[in-house]
Amino acid sequence: MVLAVEMHNITKKFGNLIANNNINFELHWGEVHGLCGENGAGKTTLMNILYGLYQPDAGKIIINGKECRLNSPKDAISAGIGMVHQHFSLVPSMTVAENIVIGNPPKKKNGLVDKKGSIEIVKELSAKYGLDINPAAIVKLLPVGLQQRVEILKALYLGANILIMDEPTAVLTPQEISQLFVTFEALKKKNKSIILITHKLKEVKEATDRITVMRLGKITGHANTADIDEHEIARMMVGREVLLRVNKEYKKSGDTILKVSNISCNDNRGVQVVKDITLEVRSGEIVGIAGVQGNGQTELIEAITGLRNVYQGSIEILGNTLGGKNLPARCRSLGVGHISEDRQNIGSALNASIRDNFLINIYKKKEFKRGIFLDYKAIDDTCIKLLEQFDVRYGKIQDPAYSLSGGNLQKLIVAREIYAKPRLLIAAQPTRGVDIGATEFIHKKLIEQRNDGNAVLLVSNDLSEIMSLSDRIYVIYKGTFVGEVNQTDATEEQLGLWMAGITTSY
Q1: Does the model's pTM come out above 0.70?
Q2: 380 shares a domain with 296
Q3: Roughly how many angstroms between the first and final C-alpha of the chain, as a whole number?
Q4: How many domains does the chain have?
């Protein structure tokens, strides 16, 4: 039987790092194949090789029975391979049809682009694959799920028979995820093949036919999805048993720690993006804010942490109204910890050392002082102990923070913020880009904060994370809270509808 893809003995090195170590991978025609693994497992490198972005140091690639040398994405596209990245490569101001045909637009006899012909092509393509979309719609006005559909149609227009989908559900509502999986089934019926890169085990089980699991640059297993459960997939990814659900006992909430009253603020362009929002977070509870990225949650958190001015409303922390100058320092003094969603530009100083990043907002603590000077031995001992406790993998604490992987940098930030013993911990996208083992660890730490009587405000695009950790949940849509529900009463369907701005059903 001729296979869609065969990758034999693929090896790829970056300096002394072996990203792919003698990898063998097969993709059948008409299947969805899940590629799973922790951060740094090598799965993205392997798919970048298949798409021609990297060339292997050893090994060979066979596409539909023919050995290929893929020196660029152009070669991959010519071989019938398309890749839909997590961050779309669409032109927002252009129409759907213009985006789809942009790589090879139909021309009139005079050499100009045939716009009517483009529309007809998209209509035919949409009908063929059951991917309904308006060719004349402006892309920036479409919801994220339809923008992703444009990306898929663009790849199909260029002749893709093999689609690589890189974390395709990261910014979708549950309803959009379900629709994406329907799209997968439609493509399978046309004998298309899909490689799904994802860390979400529930989606692996729901959407794939077979899986390949990688760890530390090697294959740790292949399996038919129907023959394996989520726990076994996780064990293959991490090399140990992983707790997939948070153990969280009921805890009665206490005094109000954070009170936000009717606040509004603008984004960097001066456009209002937070509109009359009110919320409370009490001690002993985790309050989650769910929503598709770009609906004002970033600016809301910046306002609460003093990084963005509000022009209406008030913010109180432990009964103290937030105001005056140097608001971020004021927040810190009131006991606010902040795990920023932007770990590279806000959460850390990449050129500073690992030790200095640990020290950034806690250097005034008594245990780190020797008179008027810093006690660097105490600092180093504490830093090393905490990095070990949080399983941060590093060389030396004097190394720059940019030497850390994204997941290890995130764990450093979480370690620093929790060490400061905040009364209110604001965790924005705390596990984004973090592997399953680190995610489990961070979740445990957030629950510990809650159980110790502190307050946690959690913002996440991952609905399963919100539902697992939160005691109460708000849903934000276009800068406004459109729903609030206790976790015990929440359903994915209800939250998903709210995330899409549909409130009439409830």
Answers
A1: yes
A2: no
A3: 52
A4: 3
